[in-house]
Amino acid sequence: MPRVTVSDDEAAQLGCGRALILEIEGQPDTVCARTEAGKLIAILVPEDGSRWKPRKVFPTAD
Side by side, which strands form the sheet with 31-34? Predict the structure, then answer.
């Protein structure tokens, strides 16, 4: 599964169920979002153009 690295702010937005505008190469059906430290945050699916919404969010202890 392709992956994208997100900032702490973007990870917080995903945790609240918000979609992000991301540049993803190709047209994958799903993408995993990870922090810069490599922690899995969410599985994303395309919403509209370059907007990606979380399908599954993994809780963090932070």
Answer: 3-5, 31-34, 40-48, 51-57, 20-21
